[in-house]
Design brief:
Elements (H helix, E strand, L loop, with lengths): L9 E7 L7 H22 L4 E7 L9 H11 L5 E4 L9 H13 L3 E4 L4 E2 L19
Parallel strand pairs: 1-2, 1-3, 3-4
Antiparallel strand pairs: 4-5
């Protein structure tokens, strides 16, 4: 994690799955590319106060990831106003866990932006999206 201060307002979340033999450099490059993309986005918006949460080698199948857990804790403590990810699959590859994540954000008045997918839940057109407080995964 980088750029952390007591006044952090924006969280940049990056994740890669596993380090496969022979492709570790590509995986690291992917993490770097995610961080660079989100950092550029923040700087273009004039958001100089952001923190990077990075989980390397963790699956998107669950939220049992150290940096992700820390980000959620910081959200609940009111330290975060916006969560950014390059794509939604950096957070979760399944709709129910992702919807539960969005509910946490909504409960804490935190916005979500997917930089590469042009998803910005702070926009008026997206404010009509509602989720139950917690969905159950039936799989």
């Amino acid at each position: 994690m980088t750029n952390k201060s007591n006044t952090t307002k924006h969280a940049c979340y990056s994740r890669i799955g596993s380090f496969n033999a022979g492709s570790a450099g590509d995986e690291l490059n992917s993490l770097d590319q995610q961080v660079q993309s989100m950092s550029r986005f923040c700087l273009l918006k004039g958001w100089n106060n952001f923190i990077v949460y990075m989980d390397a080698g963790y699956s998107a199948n669950n939220f049992d990831r150290p940096a992700f857990k820390q980000m959620i804790a910081d959200i609940k403590e009111g330290k975060i106003r916006t969560v950014l990810a390059t794509t939604t699959d950096r957070l979760s590859r399944s709709i129910v866990p992702f919807a539960n994540f969005l509910s946490i954000l909504k409960d804490n008045n935190v916005q979500f932006i997917s930089v590469e997918q042009n998803i910005d839940l702070s926009k008026a057109s997206m404010k009509t999206v509602t989720f139950p407080s917690k969905l159950k995964d039936k799989s």
